[in-house]
Design a protein that fits this description.
With 211 residues, this protein is of the alpha+beta class. Helices cover 30% and strands 25% of the residues. Strands 2-1-4-3-9-6-7 form a seven-stranded mixed β-sheet, covered by helices on one side. A two-stranded antiparallel sheet has the order 5-8.
């Protein structure tokens, strides 16, 4: 727990002196959000490029539209980006934005729920962060062979571990006749959302007690 409070302290101090953190709308169930969900959604181009199919965490085909969170809507500028994952204590969502004809993530509802549960203990303040994971698969078996952060690492070390563990549990279906992988290196981009479970004064008091 010591590392958790150190991480919270760093993020708390960072939030006091910087406004650079990306602001994304949370996935909520307010009456206003429900009303918005009933409104017509404008279809947007696939993030991965024209002709790409988008799959969600259940393996279902979905469309890019204005009702999606901005993280899922935006065009991909990374050619190796294949998956986007959004994690909060109340939500776990995946979008596969490229190469659905070659590789697909196997649905894992139980694992998704566990990743959501891991986020709950970090719901101390309002915070949005992201990270990018580079995945390497064995060229023969298609199983995970290497995993590392690429470009972006979350500012909270414990969150970075959750993301890395989450990406390492993924299993894939390969579309070749013999089951060998057609795609062996790709990126998984993550966005995490924390909710304010305590006030700033409460966090200050909690951190002072831990010292």
């Amino acid at each position: 727990m010591k590392s958790l409070f150190h991480s919270v302290l760093l993020v708390f101090l960072f939030s006091l002196v910087s406004c650079q953190t990306t602001k994304e709308p949370s996935v909520q169930t307010t009456d206003e959000t429900k009303t918005d969900n009933l409104a017509p959604k404008d279809i947007l181009p696939p993030p991965g490029g024209e002709g790409e199919i988008i799959l969600n965490e259940k393996g279902e085909e979905v469309q890019n539209h204005t009702g999606e969170i901005p993280f899922f809507q935006k065009k991909s500028d990374l050619p190796q980006e294949v998956f986007r994952v959004y994690i909060a204590s109340d939500s776990y969502m995946v979008r596969q934005i490229r190469h659905t004809d070659k590789i697909r993530r196997k649905p894992d509802a139980g694992g998704d729920e566990l990743s959501k549960e891991e986020m709950k203990k970090y719901d101390l303040l309002s915070f949005v962060d992201d990270g990018i994971i580079s995945i390497g698969l064995n060229t023969v078996t298609g199983k995970l062979e290497s995993i590392a952060f690429d470009r972006r690492v979350p500012r909270i070390n414990d969150i970075a571990k959750i993301i890395q563990n989450d990406a390492s549990r993924f299993n894939y279906e390969h579309s070749s006749k013999d089951g060998s992988p057609l795609i062996t290196r790709f990126l998984v981009t993550y966005q995490i959302r924390l909710y304010p479970g305590k006030t700033r004064d409460e966090i200050k008091q909690m951190l002072q007690k831990k010292k």
